[in-house]
Amino acid sequence: MEKNHGGFHGIKPFFCGALALALPICAAAAAQGPAANYPERAVKLIVPFPPGGPNDTSSRVFASHLANVLKRSVYVENVAGANGRIGSKTAAKASPDGYSLLVGSTNLNVVLPALNKNLDYDPVKDFIPIAAFSSDSLIMAVSPGLPVNSVQEFVSYAKAKPGKISAGGASGIAPHFAIEMFKQLTATDILFVPYKGGGPAILDLIGGHIQMTFNNKSALLPYIQSGKVKAIAVTGTRRQAEIPNVPTMDEVGLAGMPSTSYYGLMAPAGTPPEIVEKLKRAVATVSKSAEARAAFANLGVDPDVSDIDFGAVLARQRVEWESIVARTGIKAE
After folding, report:
1. Would you kindly state where each structural domain of the chain is located, as residue ranges?
2. In which domain of life is the source organism classified (predicted)?
3. Which residue, 78, 141, 229, 288, is most buried by CB atoms nearer than 10 A?
4. Would you tell me the crossing angle of helices 310-328 and 174-186 to the nearest 10 degrees?
């Protein structure tokens, strides 16, 4: 007697049809993976420098506004040491899931690699540039008691006292290179005094222990506005709104000086493109926020960077800084 399998045969076509309809949906969900609901927990921003410096302060302002956009906690973790190398390596080795990101910068991702060819991570291949969130220019400042009020007067003063004028700054990063480039371009005999950070150099400038420094606008601006130091030039292609009477280096005939430093978000290589795009849109939203722009302005950094391609800017700066390192002859410590 032939067995009746009619019930089974009736179910099978229905099951297969339903499965065929479900497979594309499942495949799409699988393709999105964890990116679909990103972020589902707190996001960490790795800052490879100690608390209190320009990288740290601007990163904390950025983190608070990014949290508002992502609707998740965003916090800064300082992983300092070896002039940024330790934190950079930590970020490079982090899981590429969008929850551990690097606050990159010109100093960190351009100057440091140009100066150090034996890093134990790849500063280009190990990171995906997401977007810049601020920029900062260098200011040339002199001690308040120095009888000069312009670059031209400073050069004349230094040439009249060869070897007796000292300029200080953080060693091995942009201010150091700016001082050495200034010496070359002006043919002045100025003694460089290395510091472990820009803060101590500013204090010694105020005290008259050194006569000149280059430092970030965000670090120097409060002292300029209070009259404790004198600004005589800014790097970059345009004057700064807070100190509109201070000319650019180009205006005083010193083109080729190290210029703008950019700060931005970077993800470990391998981070899903969907997460990178979500973060890029979030950074753009922060950059357009009036509250965020005001907060950055209070720090002395420029938030007008939403229209730049962060990766392209860093690539261009790598070429520029290879030339600057070669010209100055500065070696890694």
Report:
1. 43-135+260-328, 138-234
2. Bacteria
3. 141
4. 50
Query: What does pLDDT average to over the chain?
Result: 90
Cα angle value 75/79/81 (rounded, 5°): 155
Hey, is 136 helix, strand or coil? strand
State how far the Cα of 309 lies from the Cα of 283, in Å rounded to an integer: 12
Q: Answer yes or no: are the C-beta atoms of 217 and 178 closer than 8 Å.
A: no
Statement: residue 208 has pLDDT above 90: yes
Residue 1's pLDDT band (boundaries 50, 70, 90)? very low
- What pLDDT score was predicted for residue 3? 47
CA distance 244 to 206: 22
Q: How far apart are alpha carbons 163 and 30 in whole angstroms?
A: 67
Token reading at 139: 């200011």
Do 229 and 219 touch, CB atoms closer than 8 A? no
Q: Which amino acid would we find at residue 286?
A: V
Q: How far apart are the first and last CA of the chain?
A: 92
**Can you tell me the distance from the alpha carbon of 294 to that of 297, in angstroms, rounded to the nearest whole number?**
5
Res. 172 pLDDT band, cuts 50 70 90: confident
User: DSSP 3-state assignment of 311?
Assistant: helix
Can you tell me the distance from the alpha carbon of 191 to that of 271, in angstroms, rounded to the nearest whole number? Answer: 46
Radius of gyration of the chain (CA): 26
Q: What's the predicted TM-score (pTM) here?
A: 0.83
- Could you identify the residue written with the tokens 């950059």? 287
Q: Does domain 138-234 have CATH number 3.40.190.10?
A: yes
- pLDDT tens digits, one per residue of 250-294: 999 998 888 789 999 999 999 999 999 999 999 999 999 999 999
Helix, strand or coil, per DSSP, at residue 130: strand
Asked if the peptide bond before residue 39 counts as cis, ω within 30 degrees of 0, the response is yes
The superfamily CATH assigns to domain 43-135+260-328 is Bordetella uptake gene, domain 1 (3.40.190.150)
Confidence of residue 32 (pLDDT cuts 50, 70, 90): low
